[in-house]
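Problem 12. The chain below contains 733 residues. Write out its predicted structure in token notation.
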Amino acid sequence: MNKKLIFALYTLIAVCIGFATVIEKYRGTHFVGEQIYGAWWFSALWALLTVAACAYFFKQRLYQRAAVMLLHVSFIVILAGALTTHLFARSGTVRLRTGIPVTTYIDKEGYFQPLPSTLTLKEFRIINYPGTDAPLDYQSVIQSTEKDSSSPTEVVVSMNHIGHIGGHRLFQSNYDSDGEGVSLGVSYDPYGITLTYFGYLLLLAGIIATLLSKKTQMRTLYRKAMQPLAILVPLLLFASPIRANDGIQAVDKEIAHRLGSICVLYNNRICPLNTVATDFVTKLSGKAYWEGYSADEVFVSWMIYYSPWEKQKLIRVKSRAVQQLLGISGQWASYSDFLDEYHEYKLKDAVEALRSGNSSIERKALLDADEKYHMVEMFYRGQFIRMFPYRLGEDINWYMPGGQSLPKEIPVKEQFFIKQSMDYLTESIVTGQRDKALEIIAKIKLFQHDMTDDLLPSKSTVKAEIFYNTIRSQKWPVFLSLTISLLLCVFIFASSQKKKWLDAMSLSYIVLLTVYVTLLLGLRWWLSGHIPISNGHETMLFMSWALLLLTLLFHRGFPIITGLGPMVSSFCLLVAMLAGSNSQITPLMPVLQSPLLSVHVMTVMCAYALFALQLLLGVHALLLIRRHREGELERVTALSQLLLYPGVFLLTIGIFLGAVWANVSWGNYWSWDPKESWALITLMVYAVPLHKASIGLFKKPPFYHIYMISAFLAVLITYFGVNYLLGGMHSYA
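Solution.
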């Protein structure tokens, strides 16, 4: 009876959390915070589950096993810390203006509460990435004066750096548009945080003890899973686009390449013009080249010979309804096709009707075509080529060629160069003066170096980014790896004997694929200046890389992973490729500037990689059941159960590292954000099969594998469902 009660409460809590994330989308965060997460009955459910679990724990004498005891006691301590925070913590907001002392803050109920000291904002600073307008950090310099002291203490509050005054914690929340005021979050929770952190330490100790213990099932599962299987994989090839149309008026390839290496300010970072060209051409046509012309050639040629290029069919329009509005047959349109004989935008009325809710055309297709048209408009306005930097005081501003509204502080000579140099370059290209054109490009580069004091990327960095743009824009390696990986699985499951030549070829393929993904990740790390795990594209790349490393690590002991690892990895590459604008390198948001973020995301993605392997192992196991291959089924089941331990442990560590990071950044270690909630649900779902000694159904391979296949739905909702459907603070990831 006690076991059934635990299962019922456990399931009910998970279901309530899941429904709460959906309700939050429609009723708001405040509603679910009061009616569900903060309600007495929700706390009562957790309390009943804890009491029932403790009773079962003592009844089964599980306290005699140190590792098991540590794990379960840690969760009790964490829940006790959460309850303490819920009952006794105080939080609110304090607004500060420069030079004005403040002695109170406003709590969540709207009441004024006393601060332990008088706070005065001395200065608010926005620290930008060098040479750009992208914020690196927000800093509030505050003077804190104790009631019995005349000498103030200076406290600096910034992103990922909380200020402390008399047991209260201050964290950056918002700032006024004039830069003379800030809003700081205030939190007082000395007991709940201490208790919760102690629970985290117990949890870590329990995980280590479980991994090292000889009494757990991991060693038995390892021995059962150590059986060889055959594999096969071909090699990865490379190709290049073929030039199909030599009749278009185009800029010399060398000039286009040299101009593509000039630095510009784009997406709030300094990068080569080649990056802009690659994104521009890829957005319009779906690939980084057109009719054999590189992105640099298309971009620069259109910039110089704009009239003939306006008539080139390089804008892809997939929707037939939009094609009809443009009056084209087929999915390729020119810029001229978007304009009627009066030079009016053909989709203007349709877009306005869509925004007013009166359009019958598919929203995504129409907005996609509208975005492509306006990208060309931005191109004509010069917004993609802010290539002339000039230092004014401590700031470096970037200006477009031919800029007419330049600050008066810029000397006449420099103003003339900014306004006229691109005109001279265009004239040189049109008149065929190749050497003069290259000389002007060199002078623009020299001007940039003189104006920025070595803030520009080095030559090697520019070359690396151009190389990265070349390989990231190629889609065929992803489809090729997916095809080869699927063939590999077929050969693994069809082969009954081990073949050395197949082993060698498959290992070579996996090594090549690992090198390819490592190159992508390594270049992004180099160019962005941070570990590439800040958005959907990067986390999918990391997951692909982690799966390949796991495959190389376990390919001898667990040959079946040799077939499954590359396939899941290739699917991750496919998702990364489909991530669209997330593939662009952008400066890291200030709140993400924390080493805890890197470890948090990496551990969670490694856990998801293991769960993905278990999904495929489950599918394979069901096929083995159908074929009555009991020996292989036992090995596959043991391998899946073995992977469950590190998967659950990594996800657990990742979740609680995220909680520590949130506590450092926002002053609150758990906020029931949809991503947090679904990560907890995923942990609860995958933790259940670890208790197969208590739940007999998991001892039956068919039930176990069906459960593991179904469990991956929680991972998909956590990663994709929250990002694209539910939203929340984590929807950027």
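Discussion. Residues 630-666 form the longest helix (37 residues). Students who got a different answer should revisit the alignment rule from Section 12.3.
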